[in-house]
Structure formats: C-alpha cells, structure tokens
Specification:
The chain is α/β, with parallel strands linked by helices. The chain has one domain: 3-Layer(aba) Sandwich (Rossmann fold). Helices cover 45% and strands 11% of the residues. Strands 1-2 form a two-stranded parallel sheet. A two-stranded parallel sheet has the order 3-4. It is globular and about 40 Å long. The two termini are 18 Å apart.
Length: 159
C-alpha cells in the first residue's frame, strides 16, 4: 500500500516471485471512469473508490495460498473494506519522502496517474494504525532488501 510512485507494483511483483504467489495490480481493476478521472487530474473520492475496493477485495477471494496485491489502500476504511473480503490480509505500507516520490513520478510520464495528484494522495494517506496487521517499510532501499524485510515480518501462515 502507499501513494502513487511508492513502488507498489515493483515490490508486489518481486514479493509474488519470492513467495511463489500470484500478483494482482489493483489499478487494473479500476473502472474506466476512475482512470479517466485521474488521467484528467482529478482525485478520486470515496464514492469512486468504493466499488473499486470491492472489486479488489473480491479478486482476492478463492485463493487458498494467497495473492500479493498492489493497492493504494490509503485510508483505514479502505483497508477495512479489503479486510471484509480477505480477513487474513497483511498490509505493507511503502513509505518514502515526497521528494523521492516526485522524482519517481517524473520518470514515468505514460502512467495514467499524473504527478499533480500526489498532494491529494499524501493528504488522504492514513498510515497503518495500532491493531492493523502490517508493517511500514522505508522504500528507498533496493527492491531485494524491501522484499526480504517483508518476508521476515509476514505472519507464519502467510510466509
């Protein structure tokens, strides 16, 4: 989980390979209206995100071994919506300084999420709270170090 540019896709793919689990990119489940709204520079609101989060949650069902999902999950209530479908979910918040995020976003001009939406995502972000299953990882280190950190912290049944 994390804001745009945090490395969710890169880390989730690498983690999926490390754990021999399927990888799912929640961005692929956005309705076309959501993608168009973001591409036009408008942040999504809760009414946009609700059906999308439900689709992401449903996509996790029926996978007895689990699945690694790259999803922003910016707010606690969004994470709770995912938990409704996947009660054993373990969140990994990829945290980075804003300057690093801006630099990363500048290097991916073809992504539907424009750099101009980073401030709205940072404003919406609610870091993991006490009682949420998960960890926060400093995502400025190499991918293999991030993946190793995640694997070390996964609950026994998830690893």
């Amino acid at each position: 989980m994390g804001v745009t540019g945090a490395g969710k896709t890169t880390i989730a793919r690498a983690l999926g390979l490390a754990l021999n689990l399927e990888y799912l990119d929640a961005d692929a489940l956005h309705p076309s209206a959501n993608v168009a709204k973001m591409a036009a520079g408008h942040p999504l609101d809760d009414s946009d995100r609700g059906p999308w989060l439900d689709a992401v949650g449903r996509a996790t069902v029926g996978r007895p071994r689990g699945v690694v999902v790259a999803c922003s999950a910016l707010k606690r209530r969004y994470r709770d919506a995912l938990l409704h479908h996947a009660p054993g979910i373990f969140f990994v918040h990829l945290a980075l300084p804003e300057t690093v995020l801006e630099s990363r976003l500048a290097s991916r001009p073809d992504h539907f999420m424009p750099r101009s939406l980073l401030p709205s995502q940072l404003d919406a972000l609610e870091p993991l709270e006490a009682g949420e299953a998960g960890i926060t990882v400093e995502a400025t280190v190499p991918v293999d170090e991030i993946v190793a950190t995640i694997v070390r912290h996964l609950p026994e049944q998830a690893a």
